[in-house]
Amino acid sequence: MEIFLGLNIGFIILALLYLQIEPLIKQNEKKYLCGLFIIVFSLLMAIRPINTKDTLNYINGFNKSQSISIHGINFFQKYDGFEWGYIYLNRLFRNFSDNYRLFFFLITIVGITLSVCALVYLARKAGVCEINLFSLIFFVYISYFGILYNGISVRAGLSMGLGLVALICMLDNKWIKSLVFILLAVSIQRAAFLFVVIYFIIRFFPILKMKIHLFIWFVLGIILFGGGGSRELIFVSKILNSIIIKFHISGFGAYLAELDVGVGIRDIYLWLLYGIFIFFMCNSQYYMKYLNVILVGTLIVVFLHDIRAIARVYDMFYLFMVPILAIIYNEKSFIAMQSKRLLIVGIMYANSVIMLKLCFF
Fold this sequence. Notes:
Layout: H1 2-21, H2 27-46, H3 55-64, H4 84-94, H5 100-125, H6 133-150, H7 154-171, H8 175-188, H9 194-204, H10 210-226, H11 228-247, H12 253-257, H13 265-279, H14 285-304, H15 311-318, H16 321-330, H17 337-360
Helix pairs in contact: 1-6, 1-17, 2-5, 2-6, 4-8, 5-6, 5-7, 5-16, 6-7, 6-16, 6-17, 7-8, 7-9, 9-14, 10-13, 10-14, 13-14, 14-15, 14-16
């Protein structure tokens, strides 16, 4: 495990160094280097030790996938701990190979590629014209979401990529494609339905002024550090539990029974990130829209952080830190280039420290 942890740390250090020297690299060589980084990271995730978090569970699910009984298709149910779409994906792959490490390798490549390409598209939609956009977004994404989702919880990583593709189809009014992708995403990880919520936030949530965001951030900070969210959770958990019982949803009830009372480093960090993004607010309309998504994610952190599994929910909202950082980097008149680079490197460093601690300690 120590060797594997060292390899992950080495990859992050290499990513940070690459961002510093990338302006010196020829343009036609950058796409090949980015492709190489994706392959290396996917290989790294494929060779992870069995005692890495969640890995043994995924291996057992892979080996048992042919024997798991699925009676009909139900998006609310899990079968032996997995959604039916993920089980069928395992079965399909096992028609060609029984090598679970090859499965991890391929699913990581697909999940990362879908997620990064979708986030690049979202940044382009906001007017980002930075020529090094792909590598910038890839490394920011890897430093937080890649380590946890594509590296540890492989089905959540793939679902995240499919959900992001569904979101951009919704934003482009491609409704049939969006329906196909969101159904695929939900069949692999049910929480992917939240990308529909994110669509409504981006499309219809009003753009707020900096003063309003600062006021909300300040109030949420008081609630977070004052323990207010824990008190409200009792009321919220009753509502959630009634929904679980009504729709016969499996796999969620236990989360409401196991609460971690207290504020963690990750909770504080995400609240601070929201404040940083307010401070660096620029005139981009899509920056404001993506900041609204971060706002909703912060609300979830403050009021529901005591539920252990809620991280899967608010991380989908915090995905939008990635295009936000790209917009900040692209803004020519706002802040000096070196300061923007330091901001991004600093957030990547903080992201990776938190994720490495969460995944390996």
